[in-house]
Amino acid sequence: MTHEPQTTTTHTKPAGSRAAAIAVVVGPLLAIAIVWFALNRGSRDVTIGVEGRKVVEIAGPELQAAPFTPGDAVSVRIADVQPVAGGFRYDLRYVTYGPGQHDLAKTLSTPDGKPLAPRDELTVAVDTLLPESHKGDLYETPNAKINLHSGYALAMRALWFLWLLLLVPLVWLGRKKKHRAAPVVPPPTVSERLRSLLEQASHENLSSEQQADLEQLLIAFWSQRLKLSSKRLGTMIEQLRKHPEAGRQWNRVEGWLHSGKSTTNGTVARELLHDLDTLK
Asked: What is the count of structural domains for the chain?
């Protein structure tokens, strides 16, 4: 009898099957680790000194926040209140001053002053600013890449120089406008005002105010011409009466304006205008 040699077959798992097996074992563990890390991070709301927010619905009357006093571990304010069925929805803003768990319910009370009972949704966890493993060591920071030698003095000198350059066109434009300004017209003299009234009287009636102005202008005209020093009106009129030309004109104006017959006398006005022309 002839014995044939027996052969042994070895089954080898492909690489893809091993990777799938590893993924089946490691995948759930990785998912559990991610969920645990997220839950633990989520339990920490904010860090110390940073404002956090809680929006909760609480049944019952509208609550109020207690005022902050120095030494409190947490400060709470109610940013907004909206009524809901059986109670209110509160938008709470809080700032903590120490790490750990803080119950915001302790800072809330009813209108009659009764404190709010502890509630799980009002408990917040706060992280410290430094990691728990920090031992107080100081860390060296790298040198800043910002060049503090910014040339401030040079820049300011350049700006002052540009400002002085801008003054040149401003001064030039100002002088140009000054030259173009209209000349100031001097007020009319006593002689010009007297002549204007006489020209008007030669064509139309003068009002009572204009007649009074005419007398005053005639007195002023002869006072300047004769250099009369008296300030009393009566004395000045007496002096005018004694002067041949001035007295003649005054008597004609006085007879014209105070005769009571008519307020229009173009002949007298034209004669006075002629006298003024001959006096030049």
From this structure: 2
Domain that holds residue 213: 190-279
Distances (CA, A) of 11 to 14, 18, 21, 238: 9, 14, 17, 155
Structural domain includes residue 51: yes
106 belongs to a structural domain: yes
Give me the phi and psi of 92, to 5 degrees please.
Answer: -95, 135
Q: At what angle do helices 244-258 and 233-242 cross, to 10 degrees?
A: 120
Q: Tell me the Ramachandran region of residue 183: left when phi exceeds 0, alpha when psi lies from -120 to 50, beta otherwise.
A: beta
User: What pTM does this model have?
Assistant: 0.35
- Point out the domain boundary residue: 127, 154, 175: 127
Assigned domain for 245 exists: yes
The residue out of 127, 143, 172 marking a domain boundary is 127
Beta-sheet pairing, 123-127 with 44-47: parallel
Q: Do residues 52 and 46 lie in contact, with contact meaning Cβ atoms separated by under 8 Å? A: yes
> What are the tens digits of pLDDT across the range 214-266?
888 888 888 888 887 767 878 888 888 888 888 888 888 888 877 765 555 67
| Rg of the chain in Å (alpha carbons) | 55
Calculate the average pLDDT of the chain. Answer: 75
DSSP conformation class of 4: P
